[in-house]
Amino acid sequence: MKKIYYREWGIESPRYWGLLAVMSVILAVAGFAVLHMEHEGHWVTGMNNEIVWGLPHVFAIFLIVAASGALNVAALGSVFGKHIYKSLGRLSGLLAMTLLIGGLLILVLDLGQPSRLIVAMTTYNFKSIFAWNIYLYVGFLVIVGAYLFTMMERKAQRFYKGVGLLAFVWRLILTTGTGSIFGFLVARQGYDAALLAPMFIIMSFAYGLAIYLLVLMFTFNSEGRALGDKILGRLKSLLGIFVSAILYFVLVYHLTNLYGTENHEYEAFILLNGGVYTATFWVGWVLLGMLVPMAILFHPALGNSRGGIVAASLLVILGGLAAMYVIVIGGQAFPMPIFPDKIILESGFHDGVAGAPLYYSPSLPELLLGIGGVTVALTVTLVAVRMLKFLPASLADEVVDPHHG
Amino acid sequence: MSEKIDQNRREFVSVASKAAAASVVAPGVMLHSIANAGPRSEPVTDAVRYGLLIDTTKCADGCSDCVSACHKENGLDLLEKPDGASDEDWARQRPVWIRTVKVKDRLSGHVSSLPLMCQHCENPPCVDVCPTGASFRRADGIALVDRHTCIGCRYCMMACPYKARSFIHENIKVKLTAVPRGKGCVESCTLCVHRRDFGIASTACADACEHDAILFGDLNDPNSGISKALQERNHTQLRADLKLNTGVRYRGI
Questions:
Q1: In chain A, what residues touch B137 (CB-CB under 8 Å)?
Q2: Residue B14's pLDDT band (boundaries 50, 70, 90)?
Q3: CB–CB of B154 and A52 under 8 A?
Q4: DSSP one-letter code for B236
Q5: pLDDT tens digits for A247-261?
Q6: Å from B31 to nearest chain A CA?
Q7: Pick the CATH number of B50-251 from 3.40.50.300, 3.30.70.20, 2.130.10.10, 3.90.1150.10
Q8: Any chain B CB within 8 A of the CB of A60?
Q9: Is the pLDDT of residue B192 over 60?
Q10: Domain ranges of chain B
Q11: Coil, strand or helix at A346
Q12: How far is B201 from chain A (nearest CA, A)?
């Protein structure tokens, strides 16, 4: 088999350092926001006793879900034996680690007591899926690190397939665990659904691949490295299929909910009269996040144009954030059915008077924390591809698939 | 040179050193005896299960005596809105352990009022989901948060079917020694557990209710007031379909 060559990211120094400078500024601003939140307390955010998880969690869960999905490309090359993807494996493993680190950082910095992280790492209640997730996330970083080692160190290459299989299985368990954070909650009408775990898995496929595509195209195009249509065509078709699968899961979730009368008020809230949550669902998640990207990716001309692929990937990411907003925040905003056969007239603790949704307004510190996590992931990625041989030297058609005409 | 020993000086040093030694040791002896004269020293057992029975037919519309009493007993009235926070935000971010809710029946239109607090479930979802085990259920049935281990992730608040818990969103300036709290931890009704540990068998809300709507007692004792009341007439759990076997029961809804 033809040898694959890898090369460090070679854009000119001024551009590289300029990029890092911009990201450092973003990180500094985000850092100040975090210090402000930690010093003053969460009263400076829009989160309250009714909506306890807000914008930071939207970003964090999106990043964590995308992280496990980003590893899929490497899995295609190793676990599924598709040699055409083999050269993409290193960037895939790197992105999986950096996106996860970004997401975890947001979660830890949002804790009420972030200095007690050591307590969280040493004291466990193993009935909690959160406790399991701590092991799953840390284990993921270790295993993907080992996976990268088998890809990059010649003497370790004989372990490549075995570690690859372990990484693939581990990431499925990890994303199942992330979906189960919500799926296990009996309290809230929008959660308590076994479907959420596999839905998160299928979402991870799409979001991870969309981010992978954008990072690949950005690093290659900015340097003028050859990126042929063959490999891009395969990746974009995969993205289209994954987004279609998300649409299927969303349909099944809502159609099933709509069948039972007990869920009608919740479904009306998400689909009809939930204000910002309804708008985010239809415009953000369904239209821009799924239907428009599918139309672009399956269109014979648009789907094969670079601009089309970039637009579709960006929209998929936007749709992912919208999905997390509807799930995480919309799911909390709908009042719990504590008195199902009664209407609440008054409450001393905002229990959803007359069925009104609970109030949340995202604040600047939360947005900065979320953006900070994304920036950490991107910064570490760009530094890593600059310093080590993560990117294949060429993805031109002849290099990727020499046997086809 | 005089070799006469200064007896006065020796006596002074002797008396002074004895006084100093006594004044160092005495406070410790005093505090030690106070400590030993204090609260329970045996572990809690499940021989007792504490609970509440709320009679909503007796709960008066517009009355919030139980809420005021709870806030005073547990130091919640000591908390102030942070400088720069709006009143609306503070109303949503301040901790609340017990609240009154007014509901109207969808069929009959009948209106009732009732107090709502942590239901002290036998199988609490908040305990299931806590990653560090800070949220726990004591052997005598009280659901509590260990503020040393709570990392403030708020997953228990997501999981609670009664929205009973509160997160401390601001720096705490004044707190009661019986009910310590700090920024960044989660808390909820403790059935006045600090009273329990000093042998006082009541809660602030039950004591304050002038309409006898709240009854506190030992659910495991068939002769307790609450057990007899539960046997007399019908009662329900809130969200009974979740099968949490709550320690707080309601009559009249």
A1: none
A2: confident
A3: yes
A4: B
A5: 999 999 999 999 989
A6: 32
A7: 3.30.70.20
A8: no
A9: yes
A10: 1-38, 50-251
A11: strand
A12: 27
Instruction: Answer yes or no: do B149 and A339 touch at CB < 8 A.
Output: no
**Residue at token pair 């895939």:** A92
CB contact under 8 A, A342 and B102: no
Any A CB within 8 A of B63 CB: no
Task: Output b/e per residue, A297-328; b: 16+ Cβ within 10 A.
Answer: bbeeeebeeeebbbbbbebbbbbbbbbbbbbb
Place of tokens 């749709």: A319
The full DSSP string for A29-62 is HHHHHHHHHHHH-GGGSS--SSS-S-HHHHHHHH
Residue B133 near chain A (CB below 8 Å): yes
Condensed to tens digits (0 to 9), the pLDDT of residues B105-118 reads 999 999 999 999 99
Chain B residues near residue A346 by CB distance under 8 angstroms:
100-102
Among B56, B129, B144, B205, the strongest candidate for a mutation testing the A interface, having the largest count of A CBs within 10 A, is: B129
> How does the average pLDDT of chain A come out, rounded?
95
Domains of chain A: 6-400 (1.20.1630.10)
Q: Contact A345/B104, CB-based, under 8 Å?
A: yes
Angle, vertex CA A202, rays to CA A201 and CA A204, nearest 5: 65
Query: Does residue B209 have a pLDDT over 50?
Result: yes
**B42 vs A232, residue with greater confidence:** A232
pLDDT in tens, A80-117: 888 889 999 999 999 999 999 999 999 999 999 999 99
